[in-house]
Amino acid sequence: MIEADKFAYHKYIEEQPDIVFNIAEGSSGVNRESQIPAMLELLNIPYTASDPLTLSTCLDKARTKEILSYHNVPNPKFSVVNSKEQLINSGIQYPLILKPVAEGSSKGIFDSSLLTGIDGLNGTLDKRVAEYRQPFIAEEYLPGREFTVGILGNGERAFALPVVEINFDALPEHVNPIYSYEAKWILDGPGNQIEMYKCPADIDNELHEKIEKAVLNACRLLNCKDWSRVDVRLDAEDNPHIIEVNPLPGILPDPKNNSCLPKAARTAGFTYAELINFTLNSALARYGMV
């Protein structure tokens, strides 16, 4: 194990690993997830998962959505905002969701982030922009079901794991049907588990094909490698929209932690060790090392 800090560069020179299994999320800046892969590329050391460009792009939700929009991949309408005035002038229709532009794991997305009108803001946008030290995106709220899909492999061999549905019916009645910080880390957890996920999702073949096609297309366009996870939400007509692309997905090993990629992999018949080794072998093949 090598910590992803300022000493890592010299440790890689000392260790000279054949390949690095990268799970480093970094600690600061919008490019934090790309820092270790950039070091490794400078040192010509192979590593698993996506490259610095993909990692930086996907952590920036606005850049991700701009690329998807350019290629006509459906995703909710959005605007980057720094203040209440910019939100008012954004043209995004209510209801909408406010999200920090460059965070993961539902950080900065609270139950109160779903707004039905400007009166519900109560000064929180300016406060959160200052607290998180970054712009937010105002994103059109889609009223349909929400899913997340794990992808393994590369190129034509990339494939989707069983679709996971976010089960908003498991939340208390007063909680909004969004995957907020409260839903992910407070209402659900090892000490207080709820049925937050359904895997495989109860969907028909037509919807399954639409979701899988959209997810694989998004990963291809953003050049995700070895493994990733893509979040999808349906609009009022049940059309899938990409809401986030995660090229460095969460991989908590304990089933009680409800980590979605390992959950989908277990449903597909992988043990946790097999999931890790499959990802490693995908990287080895990509580098021509096997």
Major sheet, described briefly?
A: 6 strands, antiparallel
CATH evolutionary superfamily of the largest domain: ATP-grasp fold, B domain
Reading the helices and strands in chain order gives: HHHHEHEEHEEEEHEHEEHH
Provide the CATH topology of the largest domain: D-amino Acid Aminotransferase, Chain A, domain 1
CATH class of the largest domain: Alpha Beta
> Into which percentage range does the β-strand content fall?
15-25%
Low-confidence stretches: none
CATH-scheme architecture of the largest domain: 2-Layer Sandwich
Q: How many strands appear in the DSSP assignment?
A: 10
Number of domains: 2
Quick structural overview:
The protein has 290 residues and is an alpha+beta fold. The chain is built from ten helices and ten strands.
Q: Which structural traits does this protein have?
A:
290 residues; alpha+beta; Dna Ligase, domain 1; D-amino Acid Aminotransferase, Chain A, domain 1; 2 domains; 6-stranded antiparallel beta sheet; 4-stranded antiparallel beta sheet; 10 helices
Structure description:
The protein is of the alpha+beta class and 290 residues long. It folds into two domains: 78-140, 2-Layer Sandwich (Dna Ligase, domain 1), CATH 3.30.1490; 142-286, ATP-grasp fold, B domain (D-amino Acid Aminotransferase, Chain A, domain 1, 2-Layer Sandwich). The chain is built from ten helices and ten strands. It has helices spanning 8-15, 35-42, 52-59, 61-70, 84-88, 124-132, 181-186, 205-221, 260-267, 272-286; strands at residues 78-81, 96-100, 114-115, 136-140, 146-152, 159-160, 164-166, 197-198, 227-234, 240-246. The strands form two sheets. Strands 5, 6, 7, 8, 9 and 10 form a six-stranded antiparallel sheet that branches. It has a four-stranded antiparallel sheet with strand order 1-4-2-3. A hairpin with a 5-residue loop joins β9 (227-234) and β10. The model has no long low-confidence stretch (mean pLDDT 93).
